[in-house]
């Protein structure tokens, strides 16, 4: 069943009118029109720029509770009673959205309280964790980490935060997973994704030559270039030599209904 839950900020308006600060519906997060009130004190500045800053703090708090950030925002709407107040807010808005570039609309309209000078509404889409493509045939496979090997060997730890544009990402990832298996000395790969959108890929290689062969593979390098151009908001790569390694696997309970 698709997840649907409401996020409340404690604003008196939410209780009095009957709405939520944000609604999470599956991968989508819809943040209600948010004004410059400090909900802890229910006070509001007279300055439109300070109101815009408080609006964004309120929006950011709602996004964080939904386990996403401004980087996940795909649509933003600005509502102002006075069009002349919009331009002074641009530097504040650009700090949050300048690298994200969501679709945006500015509307001039009256707001519910004459003290309100700006209201901001956003929609965001949480990133789909890697390797959860609907076409994957591994969704029912048990999670099994790469085993401990006799050291020394090498690991490459690749951490990423992905952009909204993931066109072709899963197909390329599947191709690379097949391709790296042909590298002599490749030992395996572990993947993980945090709810906040941090992806972690750890690849294991028997020696530095195997790692270099994979690093210089033409298709791999082309995928890296496309990742920088399209798929990654940011990434880091750490390469290390493993000097110690051990592991543990709990023995299966023979009485378990899933045993055998």
Structural class from helices and strands?
Answer: alpha+beta
Strand content: 25-35%
Q: Which whole number gives the mean pLDDT? A: 86
Shape: elongated
Major sheet, described briefly?
6 strands, mixed
Question: How are the strands of the biggest sheet laid out side by side?
Answer: 1-2-3-8-6-7
Count of separate DSSP helical elements:
6
- Measured as a percent range, the helix fraction is 25-40%
CA radius of gyration: 24 Å
Annotation, overall tally of beta strands: 12
| Straight-line N-to-C gap | 30 Å
* H and E order: EHEEEEHEHEEEHEEHHE
Unreliable runs: 129-140, 256-260
Write the layout of secondary structure elements.
Blueprint: E1 4-7, H1 12-18, E2 22-25, E3 28-35, E4 37-38, E5 43-44, H2 48-65, E6 73-80, H3 86-97, E7 103-108, E8 119-125, E9 153-162, H4 169-180, E10 186-193, E11 198-205, H5 208-215, H6 218-231, E12 232-242
Parallel strand pairs: 6-7
Antiparallel strand pairs: 1-2, 2-3, 3-8, 4-5, 6-8, 9-11, 9-12, 10-11
Helix pairs in contact: 2-3
Could you explain how this protein is built, in words?
With 260 residues, this protein is an alpha+beta fold. Helices cover 27% and strands 30% of the residues. The chain has helices at 12-18, 48-65, 86-97, 169-180, 208-215, 218-231; strands at residues 4-7, 22-25, 28-35, 37-38, 43-44, 73-80, 103-108, 119-125, 153-162, 186-193, 198-205, 232-242. The strands form three sheets. A six-stranded mixed sheet has the order 1-2-3-8-6-7, covered by helices on one side. Strands 10-11-9-12 form a four-stranded antiparallel sheet. The two termini are 30 Å apart. Residues 129-140 and 256-260 have low confidence and may be disordered.
